[in-house]
Amino acid sequence: MRLLLVEDDNHVAAALSAVLARHGFDVTHARSGEEALQALVPESDGFGVVLLDLGLPDQDGYEVCGKIRKRTSTPVIMVTARSDVRSRIHGLNLGADDYVVKPYDTGELLARIHAVSRRTAHEDVTGGGDTALVLGAVRIELPTRQVTVDGTVVQLTRKEFDLLALLAQRPGVVFRREQIISEVWRTSWEGTGRTLEVHVASLRAKLRMPALIETVRGVGYRLVAPGV
Question: Which CATH architecture does the domain made up of 132-223 adopt?
Fold first, then answer.
């Protein structure tokens, strides 16, 4: 897999590139936001993942993420020292597919890269039907992977759409956290649990319906649709 590494520290980039190369990745290194955007012109079909450090010298990393998402659907993993939930949600709202908080374990990073890749490869499975799920004001178009609330399109990341579609297929049914992680993230890796919490919070914020997804303490989540 080709991977675009956006990192301004040459020493960090060299060490990380060596590790990624040993695991079979073909790494292209961009030292700034502008270099990253140029590497993604006109298309980024050649890259499987963009690994984006937020501490860039020329542009704010969040701004770069937003620009990348406007140009391509290539998965973006943010690398940040900001561990608070609000910062993570902000990144997800801009189109990031995942995040890794510094300092991170190399094994964690590799696991997240592979998880994002598997999700991308399985997109057609989720959106392969010819139906739409309608839950009150929320309409989920499976073939086009489009979500609308009262007719207004809501921009979701791949993970957010897959999570919402999974819960919406059985409104009122409680999905265990382990089950959701297996279905959406295609992994049983325990570290994905925090990512699940962040994406549930992001969905609630984007849909502006905080009560739509209910937390069942100690078990998991369920979608609370009108009449359920």
Answer: Orthogonal Bundle (1.10)
